[in-house]
Design goal:
Length: 150
């Protein structure tokens, strides 16, 4: 494993234990050269997943896109990074549990919205406003009414 600080390839594992989700292994490593420590996670390799975009183009699944959207929607909200990462793990598990090689981006978006709705209301509305491409205040208000009626 290459050290993220100095680039040295000689690192050693100091500690290894199951991660919080029990679906991955958390490893504490130390660089033999600069002596800095860092953490890596080892996950089970799943079937390659292809995302079908709105314009019918296909691209490999990329967890970082979901992370970016959720972190943006949760900006300045009272949720921890650990809670956000747990939510992203739940979303990712649901996507992979579909057991499909190709998944529509709209299906992924709906899974994210469903999870966000129960996670943090303001983050949900923020995500929905981008995902559903609200064109005016009325469509925004309609979504808020749906949220308030529950």
């Amino acid at each position: 494993m290459k050290c993220p600080f100095c680039g040295q390839e000689d690192t050693k594992v100091i500690d290894s234990r199951p991660a919080d989700d029990n679906c991955s292994i958390r490893r504490r490593r130390q660089c033999e050269k600069c002596k800095k420590r860092f953490t890596t996670y080892e996950k089970i390799e799943t079937i390659p997943l292809v995302v079908i975009k709105k314009d019918n183009t296909r691209e490999p699944y990329d967890r970082s896109k979901i992370e970016a959207g959720i972190f943006r929607s949760c900006h300045k909200r009272p949720v921890s990074v650990e809670e956000i990462n747990k939510l992203i793990d739940e979303i990712e598990n649901e996507i992979f549990n579909l057991e499909q090689r190709e998944v529509k981006s709209s299906d992924i978006g709906e899974i994210v919205m469903d999870k966000l709705k129960n996670f943090e209301a303001v983050a949900y509305v923020r995500f929905a406003s981008v995902y559903r491409e609200f064109k005016d205040v009325n469509t925004f208000m309609d979504e808020l009414k749906k949220l308030l009626d529950k």
